[in-house]
Amino acid sequence: MPDSVLVERTDYGALITVNRPEALNALDRATLQQLGEAIRAQSADPEVRVLALTGAGERAFIAGADIAEMAPLSRAEMGEILTLGQGAAQALEDAPQPTIAMVNGYALGGGCELALACDLIIAGPRARFGQPEVTLGLVPGFGGTVRLPRRVGWGRARELILTGRQVDAEEALRVGLCERLARDDLRAETEALARRLAGMDSEALRLVKVALGGRDGEEILARERRLFLEAFERPERRAAMKRFLRR
């Protein structure tokens, strides 16, 4: 069985790829564990000047959590998944070097939340973003209630989270959900930006990241976790997930 997370060392630093294309790179427990470990290891390496994140294949960046794995879990087991997911997102946000999400397809739920934890998001023309948790009887659980409002403002974030609506790459660029839209070669444009950042003063970039902040949402993240688990125990959530898996 191939590794569900791949690390490629590059001339600018490292590219981490979630490698479950047959499942649209959905995040199961093992993948989240590997992903968090890879992010922490690469961000701690002084040789890595820029850290990029993407998904394998052409259809998805990360299409969210693995619903088939999640549906039968207990509250305690789901709490472990949340710890892994929030931990991976926080590791991205806390990385001392610039981080870039290279979004090549679906970035939904936990996938969107991981992209939001990066400093910059570059979307390809097939990218689609969304927080569809409400359609499964849930709330965002990997930091979406903290990071989406930072990016697009409270009004837009409320609309997207309350409706579960997906936005395409053009709308994402227009509302500030991504910083760039690569209409031709997503990887080439991402790497060009990464090399530009890698050529800059790494300590200055680290200090800029500290100045911009990012950890002011810890209390909100704790609340998000509590509300997610409260929603997870509802019978309506179980019914919604069963409907999703029957599609």
**Which regions have little confidence, pLDDT < 50, spanning 5+ residues?**
none
Based on CA atoms alone, the radius of gyration comes out at 17 Å
Shape estimate: globular
If you average the pLDDT, what whole number results?
94
Query: How many strand segments?
Result: 10
> How widely separated are the two ends?
27 Å
Q: Could you give me the name of the CATH homologous superfamily?
A: 2-enoyl-CoA Hydratase, Chain A, domain 1
What structural category arises from helix and sheet content?
alpha/beta
Q: Could you estimate the helical fraction of the residues in percent?
A: 40-55%
Continuous helix count:
11
Largest sheet: 6 strands, mixed
Strand order of the largest sheet: 1-2-3-5-7-10
Give the percentage of residues in beta strands.
Answer: 15-25%
CATH class: Alpha Beta
